[in-house]
Amino acid sequence: MAVFKSIGLVLASVLILAPTAVQAASTFYVATDGDDGTGNGSTSSPWATITHALDAVPDGSTILVRPGTYQGRVNLRGSFPQGVTVRSEVPYGARLRHDATVIICFYGQGITLEGFDVAHSGPGAGALVIQIQDLIGDPGGEDFVSRITLRNNVLHDSYNNDILKINNGAGNITVEGNVFYNQTGSDEHIDVNSVTDVVIQDNIFFNDFAGSGRSNQNNTGSFIVIKDSNASDDSNLGSERITVRRNVFLNWEGSTGSNFVLVGEDGMSYYEARDVLVENNLMLGNAPNVMRAAFGVKGGLDVTFRHNTVVGDLPSLAYALRLNVEGSNPPNDNIGFYGNVWSDPTGTMGAENASRPDDFSDTPPVDTLDFFLVGNLFWNGGDTVPSDAAELVNYTDDVDRIVANPRLRGQVGIALPRWIPAVELFGDGSTTIRQAFERLVELYGSPSAGSPTIDSADPAHSPTTDILGHARPAGLGPERGAWERSPALQVSLAVNGVELSAGETLVVDVRVNNPGQLPSADFYLGAVLPGEVNVLFIRDRALRTGVGSASNPATWAPIQSGVSLSQAFTKELPGFLRRTWSGTEKAGAYRLFLIAAVPGSFADGVVDPEDVLGQSTATIVFTH
Question: Domain end: 365, 383, 403, which one?
Fold first, then answer.
C-alpha cells in the first residue's frame, strides 16, 4: 500500500483523480515576460505569444503557457499531422483577452487548446470570442481546417455575438470538457454553421450575467445552434454529422424564442442540418426565465434526441420540444425521441407561469413529415401530462411510455460553476471543470434508488455509455434518461458558496446514492484545515468534532462505521452542516470532504486508492 505523506496527496491522488498532464519530448514555453525575437521557447527563454510558438515548433510538440494575462489575438495556424497541444501550464491560470475575436483558427490542422481562461476584454469588443472556419483554399474543399480540439477551457463573456463560432467548411472539430457562460444578444454559446463532423461533449453550459457584473437582458439565443446560413458559399449544404452528447445545460437567462439546443434557425430552402445526434445530456430547468423549449428543430433531417434528462420547473412555451419550419425550410423529417426523461416536479410542464396552461410540445402537423416517440418517461408533478390534439407530437403517441416520478433531486440553490480567479475555484467549490460536471450530474441527474427509470429502456435505441461514460446497460436493461447506475457508491457534497467572511453561514448538503453492490463502508466527513497539517472531522451524527493529523489517517474518526450497503438506498441530507463564521477562525482554504472507505482500512495509517469506495470534495475560502 502506498503511504501518502499528506492529506493533500490523498485528496489529489485518491479523491479528485484528475489526469496528470504528460509533457511531450518536445516541450516549449510561452510567458508574459517572454520575447518572440530573442527567446527560443526554452524554460529559461520563453516566447511571448502562442501564435509565434505555433509558427516555430515541430510537429508533435507541447507548448506550455505560463500563468498571466495575454492581451491580443491568438492565431491557431499551421498543419500538424501528429498534432500539437497548446496547454495552460496551470489550469485556467493563463488568461487570453482581446477587444475583438480572441482566438482565430482559419488555417489550422491538428491543434489542441487546453486549460485556458478565454474572454473578451470588456464592453465594446468586436464580434466573437473564438472562431474556427476554413480558409484553406476553397472553404470546405478537400484540404480544410480540421482536427481542432478545445478542451478543459473556461470560455465566457462575449460582449459581441457568439462565444464560439465553428463555420464555413471546417470539419473534425471537438469541443470537450469546457465551461461556457454569457454570450451577447441573439447569439449563442456555440454556433455550428455549415460544418461537418463536430463533437460537443462533456461541457457545462449556463449563463450568469450578474456574476460578471452585467445585466441580464433576457435576449440571448440558444446555447447551441446547428445550422447552415451561407447556402453554397462553401462545399457544405447543411451541417452534417454533428454530435451533442454528455453535456450539462442549466440556468437559462435567454430569450423566450430560444432553446438549450436548436437544430436549424435561418429559414433556408434546404435542410440546415442532417444526421444530428443529441444524447446523454442533462438539461436543468432551475431558472425563472422563460425559454421556447428545451429542444427545437427547424428544417432538420435525420435528427435523434435520445437518453436525455430534462428536469425542473423550466418555464417555457413548450416544455420538451418544438418542431416547426420557418421561411423556406423543407418539412422536418425522421426526427426521433428515444429513452428520454421529461420531468417537471412542480406540475407546470410547459407553462410560462402559474396562470398559463401547460404545454408539452409545439409541433404544427404540416411542419414535420415523420417522427418517432418511443420509450420515454413523463412526469408533471402528479398532474396530468399536457396533451393537445392540435399538435403533432403528444406524450400519448409513445406506446412504451412511463408516466411516473423519476425520483430526481430538487434544484433549489444550485451553485453555478463559474470560475473565480481570485480563489482559483469554481463557484460550487470544485477545482476542475470535470469535478464541477460530475457534481452536477450526481446531485441533479442521478435518480434515487427505486426510480422507474432503472432497467426500463430499450437497448435497441440506447447509446452504449451514459453521461459519465459508464457502460450501458448496468443491469437487466438500460436506464431511461442520461444516467446509468454503476456499482460505485455515489457520494456528493454541495456548498452554498465558496467565499465566506465573518457573519456568513456555510451550508453543506450531503447525498449518498447506494446501488446496493457493495457490502459495507466507513464514512468520513470533515475538512482539511488551512496549512494542510490538521484535519477537522465530524465524529458522529450529533456533529461533535475532533482533530486528526493530515499525515496519519489512523487519527481520523468516521462519522459512521460499518454502514451496510447490501441494499440499494438514497439518503438526502440537505443542510446537514451549518457553520456561521465568527471571524476568529483561521483565514484560508478549507477543503471539505466526504469519503466512503473499506471498513477499517484507514486504521493502519496508510491509504490506497482501492480503500476509497466513493468520495466528494469541495473547497471554500474564509476571509476575515
Answer: 403
Whether 587 and 607 map to the same domain: the answer is yes
Q: Residue 263: give its domain's CATH number.
A: 2.160.20.10
Clarify whether residues 44 and 85 are in a common domain.
Answer: no
Q: What is the CATH number of the domain that holds 514?
A: 2.60.40.3880
Contact in structure between 228 and 241 (CB atoms under 8 Å): no
* Cβ atoms 41, 57 nearer than 8 A: yes
Neighbours of 541 (CB within 10 A): 10
C-alpha 69/C-alpha 350 separation (Å) is 44
Domain that holds residue 599: 1-19+488-624
Residue at grid coordinates 435518480: 447
For cell 476575515, name the residue: 624
DSSP letter at 215? -
In the block, residue with C-alpha cell 425563472: 288
| Distances in whole angstroms, Cα of residue 355 to Cα of each of 195, 227, 306, 446 | 42, 35, 31, 31
DSSP secondary structure code for residue 394 in this structure: -
Region of residue 416 (phi > 0: left; psi between -120 and 50: alpha; otherwise: beta) = beta
Quick one: 29 and 5 in the same domain? no
Are 170 and 137 within 8 A, CB to CB?
no
φ, ψ of residue 409 to 5 degrees: the values are: -70, 145
Taking only the tens place, the pLDDT of each residue in 551-584 is 888 898 999 999 999 999 999 999 999 989 888 8
pLDDT at 613 exceeding the cut of 80: yes
